[in-house]
Amino acid sequence: MAWERRGDGVYYYKTERQGGRVRKRYIGNGELAHSIAHADETRRRVWAERKAIERAELDEARSLASAGGELYEAVEVLAVAELVASGYHRHKGQWRMRRRD
């Protein structure tokens, strides 16, 4: 969507896809074209603001997930340390009490 200079005038065109091809559709150069251009700009700005909000929310969710992952790893290390200190060992992925022969 752009204003293009052709000859002595400036005209508003919309770029659209039709069957895989990109085509420009003439809108005009009068008051109606200015209104449509303003509406298109508003629509693009609202879309960009929504994308920025979504990006910020996604970054926040990733940050929280990262903190949760770090907490999980710390708890896992403490749990393994407690099991080893209590006399357990791993046998084929299972925690078992060490034999006292």
Task: Describe this protein's structure.
This protein is of the alpha+beta class and 101 residues long. The protein is built from one helix and five strands. The strands form two sheets. The chain has a three-stranded antiparallel sheet, with helices on one face. The radius of gyration is 31 Å and the shape is rod-shaped. The mean pLDDT is 90.
Shape: rod-shaped
Residue-averaged pLDDT, rounded?
Answer: 90
Give, in spatial order, the strands making up the sheet with the most strands. 1-2-3
Q: Number of helical segments?
A: 1
Structural class: alpha+beta
Number of domains: 1
Radius of gyration computed on alpha carbons? 31 Å
Task: Compose a concise summary of this entry.
The chain has one domain. Helix content is 54%, strand content 31%. The protein contains 1 helix and 5 strands; from the N terminus they run βββαββ.
Which key features would you list for this structure?
5 strands; single chain; 3-stranded antiparallel sheet; alpha+beta; 54% helix; 101 residues
What's the topology here?
Blueprint: E1 2-6, E2 9-18, E3 21-28, H1 31-85, E4 88-91, E5 94-97
Antiparallel strand pairs: 1-2, 2-3, 4-5
